[in-house]
Design a protein that fits this description.
Blueprint: H1 11-31, E1 35-36, E2 43-49, H2 56-65, E3 72-76, E4 82-87, H3 93-107, E5 112-118, H4 120-148, H5 151-174, E6 178-179, H6 181-212, H7 217-252, H8 258-293
Parallel strand pairs: 1-6
Antiparallel strand pairs: 2-4, 2-5, 3-4
Length: 305
Amino acid sequence: MNYKFDFVRYRKPFLLASLIIVLIGIGSLFVQGLNLGVDFVSGTRLDFTVKQNVDVEKAKSVLENNGFKHPNARAAGDKKEIVVFRTESILDKPKIDKLARDLSKEFDVKVTVQEQKVDPIIGRELARNAIIGVLIACAIIGIYIAFRFEYRFAMATVATLLYDAFLIITFFSLFQIEVDLFFIAAILTIIGYSMNDTIVVFDRIRENEEKLQPKTWEQLSAMVNQSIQQTLVRSINTVLTVLFGAVSLFLLGGEGIRNFSLALVVGLLAGAYSSIFIASQIWVMWKWRSMKTGKEEPKLSPSTE
């Protein structure tokens, strides 16, 4: 197919929009932070299975009667049959059993409970290891791409991967969706997917560069546009295929993997966007700057396009 859209020409609006999203994310993290689950903070999470369309206010009343002021409780599950209660304290089994009995009396049903506890030391260690894991993954990817391609491709790819990860974090911060270990798994999954999508575009750019040997800005931008157009159908088909699976998991999967599936959906869309509108545009601007300072002096500058 012959696409007429000039991706390089509109690189500045694309990059500006991406920068605005980053600034919004930074602001949200400073103002709201992340809604960290018990995987990353000390405390206890209790999932009480009560009944369909459970009245959360009644459940909160029971929790308040047991000494929890302003309890952090919400409804969950496909039929809103679960009361999820989080507290920063570590609850012992007798206390948990009493909460389950009191809820059973309040709703006149047998309440079952699943518990998850994390002490402060483990919570801090998990958070630190999660951050280190993402940074190590990006560093190794950058080194590999620099070795296989060149440093400009590597730096553009790493910048794109960090953007994709930060966009997911921004989404979860804005809407205060709980962050757990599955969230980290989703980010690492998206990093791998986004890298694959970006490398496909960069590999075609490298092939066309060797064949066309661009010397002017027009030639360079035309080469990048051609490379994106040649891989665009593949990129769209790939992201749609994976997106269908992620959306199915979100709609039909259980409560335990719902946030993971949501992070995948957001990350897949971010990865498809960034490989075309961020990574390629960073590379073409950097490449042009290198060409201007190299031995071969190009004829035109981007400002005259």
